[in-house]
Design a protein that fits this description.
105 residues, mainly alpha
Length: 105
């Protein structure tokens, strides 16, 4: 047999019979830490939110800068290899060395 809401009584207290709880003090001000939502709202208040378009532009600029630095490091590595060679350099290597020296320094 399935009881319905008409035949059973509710286990919850009604507002009239409820004893005042410690959380329902209306007149008193409690000194308790603010909630998470209140702290986040206070922290983020006044800050401009960065849109996704601005974030992607900034990321692209960083990526380009990173790629330029990598390219420069690769050129320096090749230049160091040419300097460290004990044998005489071929004509191609000499031209490359001069070109790298003019680009890097």
């Amino acid at each position: 047999m399935n009881p319905t809401s008409k035949t059973t009584s509710s286990n919850k207290r009604k507002a009239d019979d409820a004893a005042p709880s410690s959380g329902s003090n209306v007149g008193e001000q409690e000194s308790r830490p603010p909630g998470i939502k209140a702290m986040k709202a206070k922290r983020n208040k006044g800050k401009d939110k960065v849109g996704p378009a601005l974030a992607s532009d900034n990321m692209w600029e960083k990526k380009e800068k990173d790629m330029m630095m990598r390219e420069k490091l690769q050129k320096m590595s090749v230049y160091n290899t040419l300097l460290a060679k004990n044998d005489t350099l071929d004509e191609d290597e000499k031209v490359l060395k001069k070109k790298l020296m003019s680009e890097l320094f």
